[in-house]
């Protein structure tokens, strides 16, 4: 009963892509023991945090619990999807419902709108629930070959070949996981509309990037990162853009965010900007790193390396984001 494990060692056997696909397909199929949604949500959390690993390919439980809490909050509190287990309702969903009721949080209130202290309380409760029911379960279903974990150290360690596999096939894996998560949700709840099922893709989205906008405006020139025209003038209002498209990285890191005017942001959308802008962003991040003593930037660059941003750019192209965009003259 692997879900009860407090730690799990990694099976370091060499894995080919074919081996990993076989394990992943079994995990998603009816052969795997799945009575709840949490395995899918953990897998989505792993992918969301691929670029937050340290040099040892490790993630902290807090990083994963944040993604986990955000997704469950958006399912339960925002979209009203309350059933997540075929038996007694999942502890993860109960945490959200209890908190929403106790604090009278209005329906539809997104996770990132909650106060920081409130988010932390929910994250800590989610982390405790994940230790009991989640980390060991997915570990067992992947035959100890995807990751190792340790409750005492509160760290998860990727198998190197699996990590590279997740990078190479990130977009496809997200789509497949979303599809199977949607099927599980529909099985456990009343028939859902197509529109509701499509929202599965957006579980990780923030409702607003305004806090990042305010921080960036404090440190960078108030011009569009792409066209260099002044911001906040007429239809050139300030917007925040994910340099590497959000639909690929599915996480918000200030080192991947830039200030953009409306026309450039709307034109770029899910495209990659020309590589010259990647060099410009790396230079901008170096300038922000020099100001790390400022409290507003504390913790914003914990997992950052220029090489990591370059890797994101490379792997986004490999995952089909190969349409290069340049701003209009």
TrEMBL record:
Pfam families with a match to the protein in the record: HNH_4
Keywords: Endonuclease, Hydrolase, Nuclease
One GO molecular-function entry: endonuclease activity
Domain of life of the source: Bacteria
Name this polypeptide is given: HNH endonuclease
SMART domains per record: HNHc
Domain HNH nuclease: 211-266
InterPro entries, sorted: HNH_nuc (IPR003615)
Transmembrane intervals: none
